[in-house]
Amino acid sequence: SLIFTRSYRSALLITTPTPTPSLVKTSLYRLPCFPSGCVIFDFENGNLQGWVKTGNAFNAQPTYGDNPTLRGYDHPANQSGDWWIGTFEFRPNPSSPIGYQGDNPTGTLTSPQFTIKGSRISFLIGGGCAMNTSRAELLVNNAVVAKATGLCEETMNEQHWDVKEYGGKTAALRLIDSSSDGWGHINFDHLVNESC
Questions:
Q1: Cα dihedral angle (114, 120, 124, 127), rounded to 10 degrees?
Q2: Among 61, 87, 172, 188, which one is most buried in terms of CB atoms within 10 A?
Q3: What's the mean pLDDT in 66-90?
Q4: How far is residue 68's CA from residue 95's CA, in Å, rounded to a whole number?
């Protein structure tokens, strides 16, 4: 069965079908539309202190600014704030020249633990669209309970996970970039609990 979710913002209505009940996608091109809730991770401190990295894809993360636009790419990153995760990018501080590391690096990035509050968790995701190689995972008791991938475009769009059954549980976010092929990267930003 399909789930349809609607999101209204500035008279914009986009309805997107998804194949599983655990993941509801809402595409809001260039218009981040976050629920009123508590930010879990937004990368605005400019570092990944407390996160665990494997491989080399996340070595220069988070990245600063809308690098795709600054490179002349037609689709903006659509990040929230200045800092975000983009494993194609290489701009680890504001004074770095606009650059990129490309799709070759691979690795994983796992967050510090947090408590799930409310019935959904929202986030921005973009980059590659192959679920098996470029994805975000929600871990509860070290098990993957939800995952999401991009749309094979640099622009991050809002998605959310239905987490009603995990309320009050301890969780972690894991980002995966395991491909060196075209679109073998992940963009991610602004993980938000529905309530505080």
A1: 90
A2: 87
A3: 95
A4: 17
Is residue 108 packed enough to be buried (19+ CB in 10 Å), middle (13-18) or exposed (0-12)? Answer: middle
CA distance linking residue 81 with residue 67, whole number of Å: 13
Q: Which residues contact 142 (CB under 8 A, 6 or more apart)?
A: none
CA distances to 68, 129, 142 from 177, rounded to whole Å, are 18, 11, 19
Q: What is the length of the chain?
A: 196
Closest CA to 66 of 54, 55, 78: 78
Give the predicted TM-score (pTM) of the model: 0.82
Q: What pLDDT score does 167 carry?
A: 95
Tokens 């894991």 identify what position?
174
DSSP 1-23: --EEEEEEETTEEEEEEES-TTE
Task: Quote the distance between the C-alpha of residue 68 and its chain's center.
Answer: 16
Separation of alpha carbons 183 and 43, rounded Å: 23
pLDDT digit string, tens, across residues 93-115: 999 998 999 999 999 999 999 99
Spatial contact of 149 and 130, defined as CB atoms under 8 Å apart: yes
The C-alpha angle with vertex 174 and arms to 143 and 152, in degrees rounded to 5, equals 120
Are 91 and 63 contacting, i.e. CB atoms less than 8 angstroms apart? yes
